[in-house]
Design brief:
alpha+beta, Aminopeptidase, 7-stranded mixed β-sheet, 6 helices, 37% helix, globular
Length: 197
Amino acid sequence: MNVTIVSGEQWPDATARLLRDLPEWFGIEQSVLNYIDAARTLPSTAAPRNDEVVGVCLLRRHTPVAAEIELLAVRRALHRQGIGRRLVRAVEEHLRDSGVQLLQVKTFGPSGASEEYARTRAFYRSIGFIPLEERTDIWGPENPCLISVKPLRRSEPAERHNCRSKLAEQRVLGEYALPPVHEDEAPIRSRWATMRA
């Protein structure tokens, strides 16, 4: 399938088409209008195929280190073909590069009855999101909201991984020399050295 992942533009018309194609997920008219309006301004990532956008992801930054997937929608006929996964992966890479450490998403909660949202929750779990809590004070008691989160860790450079592997080998041999550490690990190293003394 010839789908690319792009960002840096807004796609409100494509967002409208996608949402109208998915009434089981997006059946509340005011919410649909709010998403379309948000697609005019929020950072967006899209999946165009030929000249048609077949998937879109909108992001909302809450703090310099936390963001939220405001919307993820993929054309119905293309579900379960990896487009949503690729959109989220691209978003995560961008967020990691900009210092974001935690990504959240809100979905219809499990205490409500919806086969479609059961699949949505399973999708998010499959890509590493952890259910945090279900609340009824966000969208109302008839629309329970499940908040799920995913820590975004920077990729570990190969040499750093190798240092940890060498440390594990040294421990087996009874040696406890510390490998070189990065600045963000300095407090951990300091505590570890104090505990050993």
